[in-house]
């Protein structure tokens, strides 16, 4: 590659925000400004020509050596997390991505090493926020649930199960919530139905006359409604089976 193009590429790397270095025979042949800054240097020359291994924490040496051997053998290992050391000896966790490049008639390893400190802080902050929210919900007695509208599946936390007295290991939660909602809807319908249907009004009246209070009378109406609905379902499916049988015979 012409010297002019090499200098253009070098200038681009120098301005890149992601730390980059070139490892040739375990020596730092090149490091950009972002890399030098991450490793605690005032300028790249403070690190260039130094041993790569002095910037790798002892706990990561074996992993780093294995990665370097794989790259020099022409493999493309997945990005890995390693512990690097700054000039002052303080550790910094980084995600290293490496690949082989031609260099001075030989091969070298070019790597990017992204600082994971900010990501770790963000992850911890997210966990802390989630834990505080969960603690607040637990203290308030509030339950939360997640409902996948497309599949109809519902999942919820322990508070939700306690609030609605849902089983922890019997039917799936979405079945339990569905049944609970169906029961609630049936009860609310049973409260209003006697005002619009004479037969159900009579059921309600007889339940009251038998000494039951309004709640018992509402339950009696709800049972009658449930019986109506089940009978309607049976009639519907019977007609569907009959129509399917006739269609099959005709075919």
Explain this structure.
With 251 residues, the protein is of the alpha+beta class. Helices cover 52% and strands 18% of the residues. The chain has eight helices and seven strands. The strands form two sheets. The protein has a five-stranded antiparallel beta sheet. Strands 6-7 form a two-stranded antiparallel ribbon. The protein starts with a helix and ends with a helix.
CATH class of the largest domain: Alpha Beta
Helix content class: 40-55%
Judged by helices, strands and strand pairing, the structural class is: alpha+beta
How many structural domains in the coordinates? 2
Distance between the termini: 76 Å
User: What portion of residues belong to β-strands?
Assistant: 15-25%
Could you name the CATH topology of the largest domain? Beta-Lactamase
Largest sheet, spatial ordering of strands: 2-1-5-4-3
Low-confidence stretches: none
- Globally, the shape reads elongated
Largest sheet: 5 strands, antiparallel
CATH homologous superfamily descriptor of the largest domain: PAS domain
SSE pattern, N- to C-terminal: HEEHHEEEHEEHHHH
């Amino acid at each position: 590659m012409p010297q002019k193009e090499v200098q253009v590429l070098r200038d681009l790397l120098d301005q890149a925000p992601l730390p980059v270095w070139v490892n040739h025979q375990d020596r730092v042949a090149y490091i950009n400004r972002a890399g030098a800054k991450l490793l605690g240097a005032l300028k790249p020359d403070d690190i260039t020509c130094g041993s790569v291994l002095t910037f790798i924490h002892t706990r990561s040496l074996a992993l780093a050596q294995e990665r370097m051997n794989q790259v020099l053998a022409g493999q493309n290992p997945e990005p890995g997390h390693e512990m690097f050391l700054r000039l002052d000896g303080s550790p910094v966790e980084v995600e290293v991505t490496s690949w082989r490049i031609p260099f001075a008639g030989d091969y070298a390893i070019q790597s990017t090493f992204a600082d994971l400190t900010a990501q770790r802080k963000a992850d911890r902050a997210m966990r802390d926020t989630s834990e505080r929210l969960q603690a607040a919900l637990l203290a308030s007695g509030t339950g939360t649930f997640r409902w996948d509208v497309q599949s109809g599946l519902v999942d919820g936390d322990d508070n939700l199960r306690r609030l609605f007295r849902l089983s922890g290991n019997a039917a799936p939660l979405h079945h339990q919530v569905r049944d609970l909602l169906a029961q609630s809807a049936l009860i609310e319908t049973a409260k209003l139905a006697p005002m619009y249907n004479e037969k159900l009004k009579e059921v309600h009246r007889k339940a009251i006359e038998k000494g039951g209070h309004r709640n018992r009378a509402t339950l009696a109406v709800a049972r009658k409604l449930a019986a109506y609905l089940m009978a309607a379902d049976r009639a519907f499916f019977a007609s569907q089976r009959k129509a399917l049988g006739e269609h099959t015979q005709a075919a």
